[in-house]
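Sequence, please.
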């Protein structure tokens, strides 16, 4: 009921019928032991089969998408780079997850990102728009960000971030699936799942650079993906987040998936020879009780 009230408040504000800033309700943050998360790990060169495999380890897409759901699949497609350069989520991974959501009965599947480079070039050169068009399914929408859809949200439990404009389509989704590419980042060391959600915020994102890790954790109290799938089919080792040199790319043909957004980020960090505690956002989210950082406490299921 509290979620329904929040969505009603968002619609009223968007329609200009309310001046009150919608407040996103979250329960008190879990202060005790974090439940053991399941983390699926799969490898393969056929990315459609790979996506199906990693989902099957968690019980299949039907565990996350119900018939009639409005689904958001949120990749990283913020850069004017081709797929092999590992700056964006691989288009075949995005396509496969969208197909899985459709098969599970999704009413609509929206795919979008607030781009850093010119959006038309990003959507095109990432390969994602063409991959989705090939599905020829009217339930799939790959539209550019509409600035009119950003809604100011009060983040009740935020420690560094108390209010921000967030994209309405992400807020209203019945199932939000986060699909970042695993890559180096000059400021945050890595960009993984928690940071990928910056693609659904409005305003001046540059102002987030102070206390970025905590702000990303605060955002995660509002945007809670039902599923995070980290694309490590090829990872960007250096010169991120844009990349541009194949010498900086390492092919791993790997997907990592979990309902725990902290666990996926923690495990993906090890692919770069780093410890999970090296990433500020992972540490901050763990301290807020949003997921598990200790790989030894995860149930890792390989396929």
């Amino acid at each position: 009921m509290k979620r329904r009230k929040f969505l009603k408040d968002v619609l009223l504000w968007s329609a200009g019928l309310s001046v009150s800033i919608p407040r996103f309700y979250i329960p008190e943050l879990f202060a005790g032991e974090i439940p053991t998360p399941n983390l699926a790990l799969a490898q393969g060169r056929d990315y459609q089969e790979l996506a199906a495999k990693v989902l099957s380890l968690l019980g299949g897409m039907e565990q996350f998408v119900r018939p009639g759901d409005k689904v958001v699949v949120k990749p990283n497609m913020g850069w004017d780079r081709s797929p092999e350069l590992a700056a964006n989520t691989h288009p075949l991974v995005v396509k496969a997850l969208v197909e899985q959501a459709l098969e599970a009965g999704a009413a609509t599947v929206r795919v979008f990102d607030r781009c850093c480079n010119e959006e038309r070039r990003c959507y095109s050169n990432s390969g994602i728009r063409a991959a989705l068009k090939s599905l020829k399914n009217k339930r799939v929408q790959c539209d550019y960000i509409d600035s009119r859809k950003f809604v100011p949200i009060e983040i009740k439990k935020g420690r560094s971030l108390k209010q921000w404009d967030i994209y309405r389509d992400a807020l209203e989704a019945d199932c939000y699936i986060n699909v970042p590419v695993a890559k180096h980042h000059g400021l945050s060391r890595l960009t993984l799942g928690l940071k990928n959600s910056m693609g659904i915020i409005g305003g001046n994102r540059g102002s987030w650079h102070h206390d970025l890790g905590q702000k990303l954790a605060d955002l995660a109290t509002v945007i809670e993906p039902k599923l995070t799938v980290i694309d490590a089919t090829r990872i960007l080792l250096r010169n991120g987040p844009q990349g541009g040199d194949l010498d900086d790319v390492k092919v791993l043909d790997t997907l990592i998936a979990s309902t725990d957004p902290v666990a996926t980020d923690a495990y993906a960090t090890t692919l770069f020879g780093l410890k999970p505690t090296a990433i500020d956002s992972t540490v901050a989210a763990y301290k807020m009780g949003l997921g598990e950082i200790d790989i030894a406490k995860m149930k890792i299921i390989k396929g």
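Residues 32-302 form a domain with the Rossmann fold fold (CATH 3.40.50.11440).
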